[in-house]
Amino acid sequence: MATAPSSIHLLHQDFLCPKYPRLYHNYQFGTPRLRRRPTGTARPPSRFPSFAIREWKSSTEESESSGVELLACPVCYEPLIRKGPPGLNLQAIYRSAFKCKKCDKSYSSKDIYLDLTVIAGLKEYVEVKPAGTELFRNPLVSFLYERGWRQNFNRSGFPGLDEEFKMAQDYFKSAEGGVLLDVSCGSGLFSRKFAKSGTYSGVVALDFSENMLRQCYDFLKKDPTLLATNLALVRADVSRLPFPSGSVGAVHAGAALHCWPSPSNAIAEISRILRTGGIFVGTTFLRYTSSTPWILRPLRERALQNYSYLTEEEIEDLCTSSGLINYSSKVQQSFIMFSAQKP
C-alpha cells in the first residue's frame, strides 16, 4: 500500500534524482524561446572521435549510399540523402554527410554524434528549452547519471537495470531482428545492453543532451565489442523524431516520459515512426497508483500538478489516443513499465 513520502525520500527526490521535477516547483513548462548569442562569444570546441577526424573523400568506397535511408530530416520527415559509406554504425555515420532533398538542409557529424535537431546549424540563435530539459545538458549531471544517480530510482520501485532490461526484452520479442530506437537514452545504459544483446539489426541511441551522448561514447570506448556493433548516436528531440513514418520496429524510453515537456506530442511522434506491429516500451514514475489511499491522492495531485507525473490510466489514454493498441503494464510502487503496439 502506498504511503506518504518521508522527508528522507523527498530529499532523495530533490537532490539525487532530478528526473523528479520537484526542483522546479516554481517553473511552468512553456514554449521554447530564442535568445541571441552575445557578440564575440566563442562556441565550445567539438570533441572528435579518432575515426571522425578524417576528411570526407569523394571515392568509390564513400559514394552516395543506395537504398532508402532510415534517418530523416526533422523538418520534412523525408529520408536523408547520404554521401558516405552505408550502415547504421558509428564509423559509417561519422564519415558521411547528410542532406534533405526537399528543404536542402544539410546535417553532419562534427562531434561524436549526428545532430538531427531542427536547430542544428543555427549560427546566431540558441534555443532555450524547459529547465527540466536543460538540466540534463549539464556535463556534471551527465557524468553522475550512471554513477549512482540512476541507481537511486530503486527506492521508488524500479527493479534495477538488469531486470528492467530483461522485462523490456520480453516485450520486444516480436521486434527481434529489426531496428530499435532508444529515445531519451541518457548515458546509453540501456542502448549498450540492446546493442550488445545482438537481438537487433541496429540500435539508435537518441537524446537531446549533447553531454549525455558524449558520456555514452565514453562508455562505448571502454568496450571494443560495442564499437563494432550497429549502434549510432543521434541528437534529436523526442517531439520531432528524425525518422520516416512507419520505419522503426521498436522504441524504448527508460525513465523518460515524466521528463518530456509534452508527453502527448512525444507519444504521437513515437506512434508515427513505428511500423505496423512495432512495439513501444517505456518506464516512468507514477503520480499515484490504484493502491494509493484516496485521502492521499489530492495531496499528490497538488504537489505534482505542474509536471508530467501521470497515472496508469493517463498513460494508457495517451497511447490509445495516439493509435496504439494492446496496451499492458506492470507496476511496482511508483514504477511502471508499459507497452503498446502499432496496429
Automatic annotation (TrEMBL):
Its main location: plastid. GO terms for cellular component: plastoglobule. GO terms for molecular function: methyltransferase activity; S-adenosylmethionine-dependent methyltransferase activity. The keyword Iron-sulfur does not apply. Pfam families: Methyltransf_11. Keywords: Chloroplast, Methyltransferase, Plastid, Transferase, Transit peptide. GO terms for biological process: methylation. It is found in: Plastid, Chloroplast, Plastoglobule. Residues 181-281 form the Methyltransferase type domain. Belongs to the methyltransferase superfamily. This is Methyltransferase type 11 domain-containing protein.
